[in-house]
Amino acid sequence: MINRRAMLQGVLGAGATGGMLLADLNSTAQAQDATPIPVGSALPMSGISAADGIEFKNGLELAAAEINAAGGILGRPVEIHVEDTKEMGADFVSQAMQRLVDRFNVPVIINGYNYGTNMTEMDVAADNDIIFMHYNTLISHNEKFKTDPERYYGSFQGDPPEYWYGPGCLDFLKTLADNGKWTMPNKKIAIIPSANEYSVVIANAIRDKAAEFGFEVSLFETVPFPTNQWGPTLAKLRQDPPAAIIVTHFLPQDLAQFMVQFLPQPTNSLVYMQYGPSLPAFREIGGEAVNGVVYSTVIGCLPDDYSKSFRESYRAKFGPNAAYLTGSQTYDGLWMWALSAAIAGGPSEPFNKEGTRKVAASMRRFVYRGVNGIYRADPAGQSAYCYPGQVKDPSLGMPHQFLQHQDHKTDPKLISPALYAEADFVLPPWIK
Hints:
Layout: H1 4-8, H2 19-26, E1 37-43, H3 50-69, E2 78-84, H4 90-104, E3 108-110, H5 121-128, E4 131-134, H6 139-147, E5 155-157, H7 165-178, E6 188-192, H8 197-209, E7 216-220, H9 231-239, E8 244-247, H10 252-262, E9 270-274, H11 280-286, E10 294-297, H12 308-318, H13 324-343, H14 353-365, E11 368-370, E12 373-375, E13 386-387, E14 398-399, E15 401-404, E16 413-416
Parallel strand pairs: 1-2, 3-4, 4-5, 6-7, 6-8, 8-9, 9-10, 13-14
Antiparallel strand pairs: 10-15, 11-12, 15-16
Helix pairs in contact: 3-13, 4-5, 7-8, 10-11, 13-14
Pfam family, one: Peripla_BP_6
Keywords: Amino-acid transport, Signal, Transport
Family: Belongs to the leucine-binding protein family.
């Protein structure tokens, strides 16, 4: 096990695995001055995704405080700088990132997600020769990386791409039925994406793989993004009730409204949703209506002993309702970059391709166990491997988590994968 405090101070601490590699990487490390290292982040601090933006900022601040308490990176403290991406989109995000480089000379930008960018962030990172770590959760990151790995060497996606939600969801539903935990009234599934890349890619993957898992797609309806008017869609669901309703839209306030509008006349259907139920707004708006909802995320703080101190510190610092499931992403991202920079002999700076390549090489080699599980970069796309959809070894992939809201007054319960589960699936109260 790597000792984070020792490594950040320039002292090697490693077990047998990777010991020689770490020794080689640290042998050239020189003492640094105490000048702060600027760390940039372009986040939606206002607009419809501000709730997530706030949590992403919280995660960075907590990680920075811990890193600095440990002595910084080879003696240099880190300093967080945030630019608001507002309603997101390519122009807002790329301009915010470039401002971070121009104003603060950041060697790294660690973002949560920004939608509607077409991954233009990767071009900003490449043009300035900086490290870029993000949690957009998009297969388009992998596809763009593959077009020119030499140009995009410094761009990393801190979680698996959204594609893996598709087969993972279908396998989860089939396993529930096969194990007798859920009796399907039929083989039908209804798929409801919203009009954005992330939602559509997941929905298409579910649609295209449905038959392989024994399901029939009875409804595929794309709704606006954002939306809180679910009446027309619910009318179609009630006309031909499916065994499962799969909503791949992700804004928590909109998903809560779906449940509020669904429950007056529910169908005998399991309801699966995408990511948004992890945020407190889902429970706050939906109340008792959210009890029984299942959702999944390919990244989120695990409810295990390893993350216990993080969860306690996060809520002590940011409040009892703070969403550590979201803040954990940038928290792990900053820790992983800091350790990689220490191994590489220190952080680089913009336009220093040689130095930035050393840090990127460390990030590619590093198998990092964070509070979200295992990050290991897939060399074909430089995003995290997904367990169990992509790799079967849980020590080499980030777990695709399935959670259920069993009581809206408490945090959701992790019910799958089995190796990480803290509770069993409970049949939703509206299913008779």
